[in-house]
Structures are given as C-alpha cells and as structure tokens.
Amino acid sequence: MITLYHHPKSRSTRFIFLLEELQAPYTVQPVTIRKRDGSGAVDPANPHPHGKAPAISDDGVVVFESPAIALYLTDKFPQNRLGPLAGEAGRGAYLSWLAYYSAVLEPAFVSKFMNIEVPRGTAGWVAVEEAMPAVIARLSPGPYFLGERFTALDVLYGTTFAMFGQSALLPKSPQIEDYARRVTARPAFARAMAKEG
Ligand SMILES: N[C@@H](CCC(=O)N[C@@H](CS)C(=O)NCC(=O)O)C(=O)O
C-alpha cells in the first residue's frame, strides 16, 4: 500500500491527482513542512531527506522527488497507461521530460522569481524564456505531452501551469492556458481537490 506524505496546497497535492488517475490504493499521511516565513517544521514522520513534500513509502520502500515518484507509480500501476513502460514507444520522451521538469523547468521558474540571470554554459538549466518555447513545441501536436495519451507528465506540467498561469513567471500563452484547463478539467483532479484539505 502506498503512503503519500502530504502537505496541503503543496507539490504533494498533484500526487493525490496522480494516485486518483491510477486508481491505486493509497493513504495520505499529513506532514508539516518548513515555510518561507520561518513557520512550520520538518515532520519527523516524513522520510524525505530534507523533510519536503511529497515523498511516498510503498510497504517500506521510500521514494522522493516528484519525477522519481511519478515514474515509480506509473511503473507500479500500469493498468491506466499513465506512463510508457520500459520497451514501449514514448518511454524515452517520458523519461526525458520527467527529468526536464525538475532539472530545467523548476530552476528556470525559481531563477526568474529570484531575479537571477541564468549563467550560460554553467547552469544545468536555461531561462524561462528559453524553456517555455521548447515546452510549447513539445505540446504543439497536443492535446497532451505525449500526444493523445494523458500521462504523469501532464499531471506535473499541467498543474504547474495552472498554478503559475496568473503570475508574471509564465510568459502569456493561449496554448499553455488551454492545456492547463484541459488537465485540471479531469475528474481525478476534482477528486484530488476534494481530498486534499
Ligand atoms: N524537488 C522537490 C521539491 C519539493 C518541495 O520543495 N516541496 C515544498 C512544498 S511545495 C516543501 O516541502 N518545502 C519545505 C522545505 O523546503 O523545507 C520535488 O519536486 O519533489
């Protein structure tokens, strides 16, 4: 049985969405986390090495960091085809864009938020203004990251774009807005929202 270590309205919320999409058996263990304003605290029950959310445990097997959790869950629960398996078409793109999410896109957003120029040739990521055209090109055939097939990539990217859509971090794009709406219109997203509190 999967235990999701979850903090409301955090990066762990989208894993309730993914677990609902997968129709996997799971329990949610609420944890405290440290907040930007100095409040909150690492929860000793949380197995993430820095006390961050999300983390999961699967009968004692601990997995942390969003792309690793997404891959672990879609490999473990293949029945709803939420991620191409090893040897299946699309696996290479699936792995690449999972890694890109936390290695390039999140650092790009944080750099913009902190007003830091991304050092060309040194940083492992690029500026948002360079990352987003690559993401939009990938999404162009649509409707999802891997074409017709909805996958865990859409859970990560779609919820992120839905969250940042109203902010200056995300360059305005009707295509990204449509995509975020499409992802968050899914019944599993509504179920996750109802359970998340
Ligand atoms: N790289 C991690 C980031 C997780 C993360 O930073 N989560 C935030 C909540 S949205 C957190 O737990 N912050 C508490 C802290 O930094 O101590 C992932 O993608 O899973």
Share in helix: 40-55%
Distance linking N and C termini: 21 Å
Any ligands, ions or cofactors bound here, and which?
glutathione
Main sheet characteristics: 4 strands, mixed
**What is CATH's topology name of the largest domain?**
Glutathione S-transferase Yfyf (Class Pi), Chain A, domain 2
Spans of 5+ residues with little confidence (pLDDT < 50)? none
Give the overall silhouette.
globular
Average pLDDT rating: 96
Number of strands: 4
Main sheet: strand order? 2-1-3-4
Question: What is the number of helical segments per DSSP (H or I, 4+ residues)?
Answer: 7
The run of helices and strands is: EHEEEHHHHHH
Query: At CATH's second level, what is the architecture of the largest domain?
Result: Up-down Bundle
| Global Rg | 17 Å
User: Strand portion, in percent?
Assistant: 5-15%
Broad structural category: alpha+beta
Count of individual domains: 2
- CATH first level of the largest domain: Mainly Alpha
Topology:
Elements: E1 2-6, H1 13-22, E2 26-30, E3 55-58, E4 61-64, H2 66-76, H3 91-113, H4 128-139, H5 152-164, H6 174-184, H7 187-196
Parallel strand pairs: 1-2
Antiparallel strand pairs: 1-3, 3-4
The structure holds glutathione.
What does this structure look like?
Strand 3 (55-58) and strand 4 (61-64) form a beta hairpin. It contains 7 helices and 4 strands; from the N terminus they run E-H-E-E-E-H-H-H-H-H-H. The protein has helices at residues 13-22, 66-76, 91-113, 128-139, 152-164, 174-184, 187-196; strands at residues 2-6, 26-30, 55-58, 61-64. It folds into 2 domains: 2-82 and 189-196, Glutaredoxin (3-Layer(aba) Sandwich), CATH 3.40.30; 91-186, Glutathione S-transferase Yfyf (Class Pi), Chain A, domain 2, CATH 1.20.1050. Strands 2-1-3-4 form a 4-stranded mixed sheet, covered by helices on one side. The mean pLDDT is 96. It is an alpha+beta fold. The radius of gyration is 17 Å and the shape is globular. It binds glutathione (GSH). Glutathione binds next to loops.
